[in-house]
Amino acid sequence: MKEIVVISGKGGTGKTSIVASLAALAEKKVLADCDVDAADLYLVLNPRVESLEDFSGGKKARILEEQCIGCGKCVDACRFEAISYPLSQGAGSLIPFVNPVFCEGCGVCVRVCEVQAVAFEPAISGEWYVSSTQYGPMVHARLGIAEGNSGKLVTLIRQQAREIAKRDNLDFIIVDGSPGIGCPVISSITGSDLVVVVTEPTLSGQHDLNRVAQLTGYFQIPTIVCINKWDLNPEITQRIESQAYDQGIKSVGRIRYDPAVTKAQIMKSSVIEYTGGAVSEDIKSVWRNIIYALG
Amino acid sequence: MKIAISATGPSIDDQVDARLGRARVFIIVETDTMEFNAIENPNINAGGGAGIQSAQMLAQKDVKVILTGNCGPNAFQVFGAAGVQVIVGVSGIIREAVEQYKNGAFSQASQHNVASHSGMGGGGGMGRGGGMGKGRR
Amino acid sequence: MNIAIASGKGGTGKTTISTNLAFTLARQGKSVQLLDCDVEEPNCHIFLKPQIQFSGPVNVLLPKVLDERCNGCGVCARVCEYSAIVVVKDKVLVFPELCHGCGGCSLFCPQEAIVEIQRIVGTVETGSSGAVRFIQGLLNIGELMSPAVIHVVKKAAGQSDIIIIDSPPGTSCPVIASVKDADFVLLVTEPTPFGLNDLKLAVEMVRRLMIPFAVAINRFDIGDDEVQRYCKEEDIDVVLQIPDDRRIAEAYSRGELIIDALDEYKGLFEESWDSIVNLGLHNLKSESA
Q1: Domain B2-115, second-level architecture
Q2: Do residues C278 and C239 lie in contact, with contact meaning Cβ atoms separated by under 8 Å?
């Protein structure tokens, strides 16, 4: 059983579209959508939710107005600018308000309050789902807006996918990751067997690939690269591939630009099922090389 | 002497749990008598630092050794500070694992064997408590 | 006017719009600052090729235990919600990457045995490119504290007529940190199912932050008209539409500004700015009404 994580560094390079095609190509696999801030894979894979559970990323503080004596200690103690006096209050009213969007659940205000006027409760930050699709089982989630601890949710999704893979004796866990190099990405890649970086032939793509490569290097995870829409700039494509090679990152292929990719998405289909054109052959070739890279 | 094992169930005939921080149960075995007791892991749903918390809890139970599947760097550090020997890569039936330990079959882990899942706890709102020159009040 | 350029989906064109808008306005004689708050993967510098005049560390606070005062009581560990500080057999261990810098352990230590020290998590740089003042942040690889770096980038901005904030993609903490306190948010999207799905999330985010906003549609002719329909239903103004011109993609790939590579697009950014300003003024009027 091998876990493949598809990330990009730069956003919009085509991770999710490619993962959808890999879902159609790979046999005996489970899919994990770990791009929890902006999950899109479900739009193409059309999952049927079979189980659903709440997710709590941490706690949130809340002022208990009847107990509050308006001393303001909580306002001063909060380092995250989450507590302030609402403008809408009448004159003379000194009850502060904790903005849950900015509250990080550190509990300092709760403990600094001398009259126990701050409640501290686990927040329901989102939900995660185990679903079935025509391509196999899928684990995915919805994280609430501005909720933190996406790393914990990502880890949970991967653990679930792993358990399903074990239970059903599957060969692959294919993970759709998120852009950037921060917490959700780190949680997606640690302990995986192979990271596939999907990039684009632009200076931005090259720059961001560099950063991602440093990240996977830091965590010592085997990494390969795939250049999407490569024909938009063959020169930079070449440059990226040779730079990557110098960093120990092999290229598993190039996928050409094709408007059919967008059309496939609109038709809620993976690219390789939508068109038999050359772009699909490119993707199939990438998949073959990924399997080869897994060894 | 007392050793701990991360477990999928409360009996010495259950399987070793590959996870440490979020193992379902911890089994503490007195190796001389093979008497054991099971502790439910309170950290299964912890926001972050489940490994750290579990390691801290076990350190307080006076165990000398922990047998588990995988141990991350933070938990490993906690065990080190507590003088608890860590043995990773263990799987199968707990009773068997303990017997093998008694036979001297395992070597001590010299370092953690899985990368940090640091995204879990740190992934929170991500404080900006610092910034330029923001110090103690 | 402080305007944040954000999006739900990545790769929609935030940096393209941020950089081209910044230069358009600077060339009109306005004083403009461009802040690159995508501190995980900053790209504005590729298009600005700025002269960097200052580079400094971004620090977060980290607890340090004064051993001579510590009696191993464990209060610090009990008040830490992140398991960043634990006490094991009277030894205190700190896990820096888990620490949020809330100050709780230091504040509540009965022995006053914990001070806070600085720990570097990234860098901030300031400089300029032509008439545009430029500030960017860079998060160190392996660190998690994007908002800390973003906060410093915003603090480093001085006064100017216009501040443009290039935000990271998504709707979570780094984006909130970039976008909060802005006077206006421009949400960039593309007319595809992924684009629409993520736009809805981004709209929910700005509404929750109660900041006036409008939408820009990039590559407006590649997909369907669902995004247009959604904006109409939700009464959201679309202030900028950029066509799917391969020459734009190619200029972008080479790190060139569209307004320099392709003359015919100069007016596009000028007009969209006028629309944004009108909306902004309209919002001010309705607030005071």
Answers
A1: 2-Layer Sandwich (3.30)
A2: no
